Amino acid sequence: MxxxxxxxxxxxxxxxTWRVVQPRLIATLSRMLRDVPLAEELTQDALVAALExxxxxxxxxxxxxxxxxxxxxxxxxHLRRGRLLSVKHDMLxxxxxxxxxxxxxxxAALDDDIGDELLRLIxxxxxxxxxxxxxxxxxxxxxxxxxxxxxxxxxLVPEATISQRIVRAKRTLSNSGLAYxxxxxxxxxxxxxxxxxxxxxxxxEGYLAARGEEWLRPQLCDEALRMGRVLAGLAPDEPEVHGLxxxxxxxxxxxxxRTDTNGDPVxxxxxxxxLWDWLQIRRGLRSLARAGxxxxxxxxxxxxxxxxxxxxxAETAAATNWRHIAQLYAELAQLVRSPVIELNRAVAVGMAExxxxxxDVLDAVACAPALATYHHLPAVRGDLLQKLGRLAEARQAxxxxxxxxxxGRERGLMQRRxxxxxxxxx
Length: 426
Description:
Elements (H helix, E strand, L loop, with lengths): L2 H31 L2 H22 L5 H20 L3 H16 L12 H12 L6 H13 L3 H8 L3 H18 L8 H23 L10 H17 L4 H14 L25 H16 L6 H14 L8 H14 L3 H15 L1 H11 L10 H12 L3 H14 L3 H15 L4
């Protein structure tokens, strides 16, 4: 193996480890430093240190523990420079001396209630002192480790806009001296909507990764589900919390059928439903029913969960109640004006009333600026055109979707669909 190959392998290991442990590192350092932006900065320093050290020293037996120790050492150095209370200083110094003598197991270095720690981090990032847009962007950058371009893609806004939001949010948090904590009572309620939005987007990134060569990021789905259940315990009478948990459970229940043995995507209508997790479906349906009992059946997350429930209740793809799904999307569109919701409604209308009806819905929003680089727009168009027999146009649409897709698996799917039409000698 050449030096270049070794360096590439080390970098791949560093980034794979980083993707998993970053939120836990930030949570741990935030608790130590009481400063979320500073915690993120020091964890980034630990990442740089790994990229510099590991090619020469080799990958450690426990990469996560190495990063944790490196990040905590930097936090301790900062506390020393800041001349904090000697008692706290001595306590942290003893911890670091012990860690230097025996490298701990990474999981043992974390609090048992890691779900609570991550939520404290999200609640801090979602403080009302920040704008609603900045809260979510900051939390996604720190918790998910998403790049600014990936967050921009999730919100369908320019990358520069997201970058500015994050910079301003970090500056505001640093200057405010806000506590790193989980609020309660009225303080919790006023942040809850933003926290739910962040958890929802974390789940979405796990359910369909924006970038990379893997279609799924299961660890993010698991984190989001755990945090959703913790939130249900913190706010048991909030219907939208139960709606979000229902939505995540119902969507996650299909994980085992969403990819084939090669890791390539399997579309919903082609999935083997015997591979769906029926225990998780039942949990999701119970949470959806609870949201309804609390008067929240028409909430943003509950409506999406109701759509997922329609799929879950259909024993076969052909048995899916597409008319009801189209109606639910119409209700969702009344609640939140979004071209993405209209795009999804076009799919449902196309299934319920025919592809031309779906194409009519799609054409009404096709010029929306937010969809200009959204690969799902030409992907849906290609599917509807294929059903109409307009195969040359469908192939062009799938090729356009492949060009716009930033996830390697989705790009490959669109390329295969285009090639399949080409093979039919259009």
